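Repro:
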Amino acid sequence: MAHALHKYQGPCKNIHGHTYHFSVTLIGLPKQEEGCSKDGMVTDFGNIKRIVQEAVIDKFDHALLLNHKSPLSNSKDIRDECEKLVVLPFQPTCENLLIYFVSLVRKKFTSGQELISERLDETTNSYAEWFLLDNQD
């Protein structure tokens, strides 16, 4: 993904990209049904991959993310040249993106499976983490 931070005082105000890494952690009790193909699983990892693919990767992979307040988000040249422009109602920082991804992914899991953490790595040593225990009402 690429992004630019609107009104940021530093190099990140310019359009630049990262190779993000996104991970989710679920909690639940493994199914105990002898003979069932999902015996011993909280959920099939393929299910997690499908949910993350559809909710996050398909929309954001190789996209340019811009704050809706940025003049770049209304640039005809950028809109014409960028096949995957995502204009967001917030600053596209790693932290804000992670919170947004939580909202996209969390509701997709069925009962007995609960999202307890997500992590978005922007670089090898810069990341944001979200934990359910820190975000309960």
